[in-house]
């Protein structure tokens, strides 16, 4: 199945598995509440925790980045595209089923070839969270995704991960603090 087909599945409300810089991820349309609910049910993850938005086009995040200071933006620009996720204030521009109980949203400008192309084909950022049920190790290989989710997904594909040993680092744009080391 092609990249375009995967993007169409997301646009139609589907949930897919795709490789990222380090692990396999589950993706869906962040503006589709039912798709996000399905994704968090598959993972057995509380919706309150919030989710990461990923895109291969930094312009997809422009509405959220324009309120940042020059120093904050410089810190972000120094790490993107790449495996660093930034927490930025969302000023109620993000649906609560994506941001959870937080006043910030997690954003990553990815440089993984498939994931970047997928978001561009979809036409915006996608939800991307590690492909594993809560409490289990993130899937590093397609066979692990299949073991975890079987036929519960609408698409699994896109090649291999970028081979990083650790998940993406998460940093807070307001303070520069590392929330999760990468």
From TrEMBL:
Catalyzed chemical reaction(s): L-threonine + hydrogencarbonate + ATP = L-threonylcarbamoyladenylate + diphosphate + H2O
One GO cellular component term noted in the UniProt record for this chain: cytoplasm
SUPFAM superfamilies, per database record: YrdC/RibB
GO molecular function, one term: double-stranded RNA binding
Transmembrane residue ranges: none
Region (Disordered): 160-182
Location of this chain's protein in the cell: Cytoplasm
Alphabetical UniProt keywords: ATP-binding, Cytoplasm, Nucleotide-binding, Nucleotidyltransferase, Transferase, tRNA processing
Predominant location: cytoplasm
Span of domain YrdC-like: 1-182
InterPro entries per record: DHBP_synth_RibB-like_a/b_dom, Sua5-like_dom, TC-AMP_synthase, TC-AMP_synthase_SUA5
GO biological process: regulation of translational fidelity; tRNA threonylcarbamoyladenosine modification
Any Pfam family: Sua5_yciO_yrdC
Protein family: Belongs to the SUA5 family. TsaC subfamily.
The protein's name: Threonylcarbamoyl-AMP synthase
